[in-house]
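In full, the data.
>
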Amino acid sequence: MDIRFADEKDLDQIANVYIKNHRSTYKGLLSDEYLCGLTFDYGRNKWEAYLRDESKKIWAAYEETLFLGFAAGMEDAELDRTWYLDSLHVTEDARGKGVGTALIRTVGQYAREHHYNRMSICIVKGNEAAGGLYRRLGARHFKDFEDLFAGTVSHSEKLLWEPVVL
């Protein structure tokens, strides 16, 4: 598996997996109105803007030419010296094959190399698959909070890896 910083060539695949995963993962957790409003153009514009922001990073995972998934991150706005794992999405066919773990470890390595003391991630409560993975990799509960997704309130949880050891 090859994991590298994403570029413009990756945006269509990033947008596709982002929209597809949101619609399947958050069905029943977020409103149908929000999920149905997610379009390819929305996803592409979101990740294109993210890619252009030098303070944010996106990593793409491939097996030869097959896109497997991506992770994105930036400094945590709430916690000092903390890198925030903003998004992690793996294609359906690549799930259960270590892609998510490899992406998280890559992001963690980046955080350590750039002198961040810890790494955080926020999850929608009820997303047990993601929460289980993060906890197996050493993340611990930091706080519960309410989040907004285009006006849709979600019950969410913030987890921390402290120190960043993955």
Remarks:
- The mean pLDDT is 93.
- The helical segments are 11-25, 32-36, 40-52, 99-113, 128-136.
- The beta strands are 2-5, 57-63, 66-75, 82-90, 118-124, 140-149, 152-161.
- The first helix runs from residue 11 to 25.
